[in-house]
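re: ur question from yesterday

yeah so i grabbed the chain u mentioned. its 114 aa long if i counted rite. heres the sequnce exactly as i have it in my notes:
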Amino acid sequence: MRPFLLCVAAIGLFAQDQTELSHALSSSRQRIDHIDDQIVKLLNERAAVVRDVGVVKTRFHAPAGAPGREEQVLQRVSNQARAPLSPEAVRKIYQTVLAEMTAMEDQEMHSGAK
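ran it thru and got these structure tokens back, copy pasting raw so excuse formatting
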């Protein structure tokens, strides 16, 4: 019976700690959510411009991907990195952004979407 009571007490303390932790993090999490909302809004804005670029590329029979341009973007954004983000971290994040944007552009160029 004694081990059971110790286990119940430990679970109660853990639950209390988790509640206090959640409360302590609440403000920061709300700030992060707001920043995430802004990032998604900007990604959608960027995607709209990429869509326009795809229309131009379709007219000129150019491919969606442009490795030279992609490297320029990667270099430019990684040079803007400031602590706590390293240039390598920013580069990796943008490699993913560029890959997804290029895939979207390629799909739209080949589907005839506007």
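noticed a couple things. Residues 87 and 106 are 28 Å apart (CA to CA). also The chain has one domain: 35-114.
anyway ttyl
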